[in-house]
Each structure stands twice: as C-alpha cells, then as structure tokens.
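Hi R.,

Here's the input for the zinc ion complex you asked about:
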Amino acid sequence: MNATEILEKLVSFDSVVGAPNGAIVSWINDYLASHGISAKVLAGPEGDRSNLFATIGRVDMPGYILSGHMDVVPAEVDEWSSSPFRLRREGDMLFGRGTTDMKGFLAAALAAVPQLVTAGLKRPIHLAFSYDEEAGCRGAPHLIAQLPTLCAPPLGAIIGEPSNMRAVLAHKGKAAARVTIRGRAGHSSRPDLGLNAIHALAAVLNAAIDQTARLSQGPFDTAFEPPYSSLQAGVIAGGKAINIIPDLAMLELEARAISGVNPRDLLGPIRKAADALRDNGFAVEWDEMSAYPALALAARSPLAHLMQELTSETPLSAVSYGTEAGLYQAAGIDALICGPGDIGRAHKPDEFIFESELAACQRFIEALGQRCAA
Ligand SMILES: [Zn+2]
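And here is the predicted structure with zinc ion in place:
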C-alpha cells in the first residue's frame, strides 16, 4: 500500500480523542504483521484504548523513535464540504480529519516500513503511536514509562506533528486544571445561612488574574511568542438561579510555560488561593486535566544535526503549539518535531494534506533508514 492508500484507511477510523481506539490500533497492528513486524499493543489504564509500539531492526541497539498520535479532534460534519472520515482527493490535495494532524505522518511512516524492513538496519527505527494526545498528551506517558522494557535507550525521538518537514527544537509546556468549590445552598434572602461558592471562587479567579500579570514580567525566552510564560482562565461555571445561594462553582485554567519552567508551578498561587477557602468552610477539589513539559533541544545536539542533514533545512527554533516531544525529553531522550503539513490546517473543517507532502515525509523516513543501515 502506498502512503495515500494507508492514509485513506487511517482516516476512515473516527478515532476521536477520548474514545476507545481498538479499531485503528488493530488495523495498524495487522498491517505491521503483514510486513513481519510484531507490534506491542500497550493498553492504557482506561482499559479501552491503547498505545502501539513497534521496532524495525534490533531492539537491543539504540535507535530512533518516530512518534505520532492516532487520535484526532472531533469534526463538525456540517462545516465540512464532504465526510470528514472519508478521504477525498482534489488534485494533489487529500481532505479528511487528521490528514495533517497527524495521520499523514503515520501513513508516511507505515508506507516506509517495507523499505525499512529490507534496509538491514543496524540501528532500529521504532514506531511509537499514542492515544488521546489531543486531550493534553494523556496516552504517551504510559508508553514512555514502559520504554526501558521495550528497547535500548533511544538516540532520539522525532515527533511528526505538522511542521512543514522542518525540524523544530522548542515548544512551551502546559498544565491545565479544574478547581471546584462547594459551599452551601440556601435562599438568597438568607445569605447568613449559606456559603456562596461563586463569591468564594472570585478569590481564585483574582489569584489567576494576578498571576497572569506577574508572568508577563518575565522570565523571558525570545524563542516564543509571547516570550514569557502565560496563564488564562478558560471556563467558569456555577449557580442555578438568581435567588438561590450557589453551592457549586467551577473554574478551568491552563498555564503555558517557557523552557526551564515547570508548567504545574505556574498554577501554584491559584491552587493556594483555592486551598485557603477550606478555612471558611468550603470544600475544594483540584483536578489536573493534563500536563506536559516544555521542549528545548540544543541546536548543537546530534539529533538536531542529523535532522538538518536529512531535511537540508536549518531547524526552526520554536513553535507555539505543544507536543509529546517535551515528555520524551523529560524522560532523557533527545526529541524534536518534524512532520508533514502545516499546523494552520489542523483542527479545522476541510483539513487536508498535499500528496507531495506525504511523499516528502516518506522519503525523509527512508533516508533516516539509510543512515541507520550504514
Ligand atoms: Zn497533533
């Protein structure tokens, strides 16, 4: 099968984030088996979804990881010109949910497998395909935790998120959390008898607003836009009616951290403000929704050099979107982003990839294979 045929198959699975992914995993598993590769299907703690890991070549030698996620963001069918889960060709353009983010990369990697199998790899190439990346990299940490039992310590990980096939060395880290405040309901005419959760949440919201102002004062890293860590409250909810004392209020926040800053730490002052409400009789819950660290790979690292040679392009210093690369780097594995397509097309109706972009990505992976065979 060529990359387009594989992409057509991958797009046909509506492997939307947060849902069971058995169908796409088992198709990829079967495809690899048909080329003599026995993949490991690694079930996550949810029980109904899995990561997939496969090695072409020897597992006891250090090699390279090609990392991609199998989940896609949902598609509003009405906004699409054609069915988002049926690949549609228009000239050189291939339309479908996930074509760019990032089943295109998976398809190019899988299409390269027959060539990699016969290349006589001295250093292996691993495929590490994850689930629920779009929910804040929820699947990949489980795969990364098992890596020491799956292969020798890798030389590097290439995360195939759309970057127009240009290596990217840095992105911000992120932490998202939900804070839930529970008070006591009552009639609005007797505020003395209730505990108003919305009023209490105001202190938490103020702490978040104060923190955004503080963060804009630095530290700075000019690789990023904006060049500082940031934070925002994105969702707020609470209350049932104007004459009922609200017993429940909820706020969702996310922080984005420049390299060298732990994104969880950015939420610290807000968490402290929430915890302080307990002294006034409120129940407080703090749920981390997702977190991944920033990526910062040195331009002089061997992996960055290798990519420059293979792509004939100087790596790009930073992008604004987050990926699994930060998780690999935090696990001690050099990592960068390099994949086909433009991030500007992701998460939108009529997402597409050019067939020529798929071909360029496949050529790049096969060239990596030549290196690993030499
Ligand atoms: Zn993605």
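One thing worth noting: The CA atoms of residues 255 and 267 lie 7 Å apart.

Cheers,
M.
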